[in-house]
Batch of 4 targets.
Target 1
Amino acid sequence: MKEYKSEEEFLKDYDSSQFEKLSMTSDICLISVSDVEKKEYRRNNGKIMSILLVKRDDYPYKDRWCLPGGFMNPKEETLEECATRILKRETNLSNIYLEQLYTFDSLKRDPRLRVVSCSFVALIDKNLLVDPINKNASWFDVTLFEEKNNVVTLVLDNGTETLKIEIEKHLKEKTTDRYAFISKTNTLAFDHDLVILSGIERIRNKTNYTDVVFNMMPELFTLGELQQVYEVILGKKLLDPAFRRIIKDKVVKTDKMKTGEGHRPSALFKYKGNH
């Protein structure tokens, strides 16, 4: 074996062809909680969770829906930079909350070649979008999210198409409460149904101990609007006293009021972190 005098000399002779090549992608679960169309004048808007999907226009999985994603340029960008570029391309959004989720690396997740995906979760209020999303992208409302007997059922609807997803959850480690997800329906391209479930569960968990919810809020909001967002993410109703205890140190009251919607004026608040 040749002995090298320096790392530079070693790297000059190094033969990287002895290793198999793989590709890396960034896939983004973009989640929004925003208003639904009000049915009656004197009722507040409800809130609903939505996921941005993109319809593929080429094989593999031609005409199937998937999350925004793409291949990382290994010589020019990191995985997070790749995710930021993809979000800008699909939504015209930048400087939004984005965090790494999980790495998905099953052997046959992409039929073309070995592809490992680093997934991200991003949060916005889609009502704040100024520029239109791409023509092959669509917001799907989460009209059902329930878990029974360790099977999660997720129904997504964009007004013209309904997608039903079923995923089995298997406990991997009792000591850490870690689960393995197994798709039963393969509704979306690749393994993006698993990414969506992981993204929603991550945001639910973080809602309990962080201020992540405020990434989905406008600058000014009523406490009722904020409570609706919490309830949509957590998937349950919150009693008013309990909710007030949760947010009492997170918001500050402004001198502005929300009026003109057929009900009593409501005080507007803002996130204390921006105060």
Target 2
Amino acid sequence: MVNQTPHIRQLILERLYTEKRRPVSGVQLSDLTGISRVAIWKHMHALKKNGLPIESSPKGYFLSDRENLILPACFDPPLADRIHYFPQVTTTMDKARELARKGAPHLSCVVAEHQTKGRGRLNRRWASDPGGLWITLILTPDAPPGLAYLYNFAASLSLSLTLDALFGLDTRVKWPNDLLLEGKKLAGLLSEIETRADMIRYLLVGIGINVNNDPSSTAFEAISISQALGRPVSRKEILAQFIQKFSDRIRHLDAAGIMAAWKQRTSTIGTRVRVETRHQIIEGLATDVDEAGTLWVKDAGHQMHKIIYGDCFHA
């Protein structure tokens, strides 16, 4: 039996969004969804728990903060048609994989209010509480697997430029795929690829951004945009402008241009680092990131290490 919960909750939220601050009664929502008023109340309780700004009044329910919503109805076409919204998922990556295998078009985007099993690199847990922006891009480029890394670097670069343009935040990209603000983790990226013959079937780029949430309970030192600015900001605006910048950046894939622009915004090059791979730990001075996305590290004995994949920590 198909789980109707995500569909029902999206219907409820879209109706509340359309009515702006005018209350929508439980009876109206019951008629819309075909479920009882008691069931509507239970959905409202769950949506509030997931961080949705839903308020109650004697006349019904309404949204107190429409700008913080990321429903498809909040965006203009053609982006609205590519947004797949879920109040709660295990991970947006899991849902995006499912949609990609069903033929979701290029530059589709899965967004969620909350992930119950959010994860980062090397399968580390990623806290993804309500208020953050948890997304996975579905890409179906006409490109070989060897170029997949460019989309990851283009994504972190585009996000950094977006946050600078919107809020004047001096975010720095950290190899291979984090964004730092004031030396603290602001965002992380994670990718997954499936190939067919010698071409990319789909590439998933999962992105977690601390926006209006409080990430202070995480094991690593982290910060959110609202903490840095002292006020909440629009997740809708961040998502729309990021996807536009990213789409423009990858329209004509240029390895030299992407990597040169990325290097202009990185804090990794010239910093002492510790890089953990699956087989070893390398410490030293990060001297370069080349056009292939490879990190070069000079250790204490002046030996150069070529690192293709790993977790990087700034000393």
Target 3
Amino acid sequence: MQPEAATRFVPVAASEPPLEADPQLRARLGALIVEAVPAFYALLPLPSERIAQLQGDLLGVAGTEFESAAALLGDEPLALVTWLPTERLAGAQRSATVALMRHLDRAVVPKFLADAAGYGRGVEPVEGSGLYLSRVAVAPAGRGRGLGRAAVQQVIDAAAGSDVWLHVARDNDPAIALYHSLGFQFHSDAPFASRAMRRAGQTT
């Protein structure tokens, strides 16, 4: 059964107050973005608050991994999910890396690039169409209420019968179980640290 609160997911563009008028809300949502993929953001030699601000500023921006987003908002954001067309994923990720580099001291850029390349080698390539679920995160105050399932359902609904793709850490058994229950299957048996999963579109 879906939680009653799931009906309160709203597109971030329609949030109250509007995101563009509330940098603190953007930063709090940015912190959820960071929490969704901590291994990547740990590579950045920047304060966590700055990283959250930078990522929150990209919410709803076309061409980014976060161009479409829905959030469950209360006194504090409880959950966030972001997505984009799968065909634009590689370009969005390259642009994100370049954008983050602009905020780094030149001396640390080579190490960041090397670390990011190493991280990327552990991520299974996505080959297909549809929507890519780029981030899903539930704040501690929202856990245990089915909000992760409700967040993923936002993207399934937005896909309107097309494929939905995502990545999951190979040792994240609770997330894998959730995705399996929603119809996702592993794309391959390859031993990537971050494995691709696909929910096949519904044929008519």
Target 4
Amino acid sequence: MNTTDTAIAEKPKLFDCRDAYAQTLEAMAAEDPRVCVVVNDSVSSTKMKSFQTRFPERFVNVGIAEQNMVGVGAGLANGGMTPYVCGASCFLTARAMEQVKVDLGYSKWNVKLCGMSSGMAYGELGPTHHSIEDLAWTRIIPNLTVIVPADPAETAWAMRYSLQYEGPMFLRMSRMPVREVHGADQQFALGKAPVLRQGNDVTLMANGVMVSRALDAAKLLEAEGVSARVLNMSSMKPMDAEAVLDAARTTRGIVTAEEALAAGGLGGAVAELLALHHPAPMRILGVPDVFAPTGSAEFLLEHFGLTAQGIRAAALDLLGAKR
């Protein structure tokens, strides 16, 4: 095998987590007649064409009316159904936040919000379609659980878990291709942060598409003699407080990375916990206090340092290393 063949063989396979979400949701509907779907004229982008064909009586398209979409979901839950309200995360959260707050958080209806194409996945469509505020918004709503899967396996596990969980939930799904980061023996557990890599110098915490990049950063750091622990913070609310505090106690600092605003999301949640219980050095990576520009998703991640090299640099800065 020549060098080119080796490079091709070693290139990891990438997956769209929306496929795992759609396939799992359809399988769940086949098993449970309560499962239904509500969309906002987003059948293709939410990958619900097959669901609509197979279960037309359990599929509601309200059109471009996100507030109504969430209200319809709450009504279906009130009638004993288990609705999955699916739409682009930027519109589902920004346009319908009052309904999310009142109809779901306050009223505690058993509705599963599926925020699709989150973060900066829409790239060239620009700030109106970037969903970088959704984690900050949703995590402050009382009674609303927030989950950010990292790969297709975890997406499927989280979807399965959501069906047995009673209460409102926000599942943040990206369309950016990611590789598998979980082993076959791992399962999703609400409120737990899987340790994907052990380390005792610094802890890297990430969710969603940033988890694989944190793992890559840990490899770069290892080559420089730095031992990095990697935690998958997919369960953002409730968060694994013990894992965070253990990292603060047993490593020299924490770097968080998220495809979202640096203020108010994962980094903010970790900082709040540490400030109250165990202050520790931190670096919070995300989009700063700006609207992300127009460009491809990969360009935008590079632009804001949301890459393996960016995480590596933040970790070295935290540790005081000049490399």
